[in-house]
Amino acid sequence: YQRRVHGGFQDLRAELEDSHANRERVLQKKHAISQLTDRVGHHVQQGERKDAEFLLRQAVECAVDALAITDQGHGDLRSLLATAMESIQSCALFQHFLATGNLQPKCSALVMAIDSNEYLGGVMDFLAELPRYALRRTALGDVRSVVLCRALTEAVQAQLVLFDFRNGPLRRRFDGVKYTLKRLEDILYEASLLNSAADPCEPMDTETLAAVNLEEFASMRAEIEAHDERRDAIIKRARDITKHSKHAIYSLHRCNREEADQRIAEAEKAADELLPLVELDPDLKSGSFAAAMEEYAEAVTWRHYLVTGQILPKRAMRDVSWAVYLGGLADFSGELGRYAIAKATKREVDEVAQCHAVMHQIYSEFLLLQHLPKGIHSKMVSVRENMKKLESVLYDLAMSSGRRLRPVASAALDEAPPKGAASDDERD
Fold first, then answer.
1. What is the 3-state secondary structure (H, E, C) of 201-228?
2. Could you read off the pLDDT of 362-377 as tens digits, one per residue?
3. Is 33:88 a contact under the CB 8 Å cutoff?
4. Is the pTM higher than 0.70?
5. CB under 8 A, 24+ apart: contacts of 193-201
6. 8 Å CB contact between 293 and 241
7. CB of 15 within 8 A of CB of 370?
8. Which of 194, 200, 246, 251 is within CB 3.0–4.6 Å of 260 for a Cys-Cys bond?
């Protein structure tokens, strides 16, 4: 009953350990950045710019170190730094505003790589801090600084309103910009009641307009729109991958292998069309694309098992991550369970026992993996339930037949023996 397959779980265990170690290093840097930027914000609000500048340089150094880790083949960890990068950007913008009264451009913002979403997030976080700064300046009789805060907020809002922000963090923060502007106008109005010299309706002059780089905002808007178009294209085409993969699994259960091969070929064609798009935007590999490729991984694993009695290794698949491969393998256990039930109705006890042995070893290998990718823990529950269901089926078969079942050796995820090495049967 032994069916040897190439699982590659030894390599996966080492890769997960390495990924977890680097993730912890990045999170440590992120925590340090958060502490430093909180202190920077406090010093900036208190007018202690030298202390703020010193701490900001330390935060930037931490970010550079963290980015070096993500650049060393761990690009999937880059998203962990998004909020930290926005915090640094917000502090840098505040410092620049206090020194010049202008909005620091993205092109000259920092010495490290920062994308448009992080820059815009930093801009909105910076604007949210202006009402607190305006209160303090008004209390000191500096109404002109509050007028400048309002003028800059109006100029930035005029550019941000041109963006088509999708639902997400930027959309929610953009909605808060209008409340920032309203609060600044209220402060100026209240100040005007006490000081007739203050003119809260002072129009934004040409110099303030020039403080916002219009060309740069237009460039970022075009970049985000292009990203959204790629995302929409991926979501739409990923549905085809899912649809064809599901049809392939359906056909395989009905022994229509020719139809399944055609469906899998269509799914692979769609995946090949999307790969260049996800290479341009690695963050688009998650979500719809990952879910579709997980369905594809399940389909090709199921087909390969039916044809060869082996489980398709990750290296034999198209460009899929370990998270996608493990998700597909976990879902494959459901198809294996359905197949075993069909065999049980025909009283093919040995085949049911083999399916249970394969499922048992899949679950055993999952249990040995530490620091599993997101979402795999919940799928492990499904694998366990499928395995328990087959145990009940085997019990019923044993009771109905009145004979013991022979134990089935589980070698479904063992590495293939070296070429020329004797098999278990040969050694016996």
1. CCCCCHHHHHCCCHHHHHHHHHHHHHHH
2. 888 888 888 888 888 8
3. yes
4. yes
5. 195/141, 195/143, 198/143, 198/147, 199/147, 200/147, 200/150
6. yes
7. no
8. 251
